Amino acid sequence: MNTILAQKRDQAAKAKQLRRSGIVPCVICGASLKESLSVQIDQSTARQLQRTKRNGSKVNIQVDGKTYPTLIKDLEYNGMNNEILHISFQVLDARKKFNSVADIVLLNKEKVAGILEQMQMQIPHAAEPEYLLDTVTVNLENMPIGTTLTIGDIPEFQSDKIELQADAGSIVLRISDKKRVEEKTEQ
What we know:
Layout: E1 2-8, H1 15-20, E2 23-29, E3 37-42, H2 43-52, E4 58-63, E5 66-78, E6 83-91, E7 98-107, E8 115-118, E9 122-127, E10 135-139, E11 148-150, E12 162-164, E13 171-176, H3 178-186
């Protein structure tokens, strides 16, 4: 788990002023905290988080010498001007289960012989912090035409440490025959 440095945020400073000076306002919240903690990180750290992590990723945040194990709950981003507006973090408690999502990453898409249809991009689940997943990788190499992969078929979701928040029978992806699909469209 990465550790990022943050500073307590001056409540008098406006979020817009902070962003103009290269600082991203953030909040750390959770049941184990008496009150939410307003913090700030520099824009370059926020950009690195955006590139390497996603919602549901675990990150340690160090503020005034104290480290908080957290989960990225929301990264607000303005695509119009390429600006990170705000990041919300949730403090993790090792004894509690937390809701999160795992992104599905497909490897070797170009090696699929048929037509690949991906129905699920993220899988919601709950687990204790050490078992939370932020990504699950599915290797498509050598998957035959006619393959239908469900959430329950993915080994990471077969663990008794992970509680699925979706139906295990939900289809994640399907590989169909190119000819059959072409024939249906010609009729």
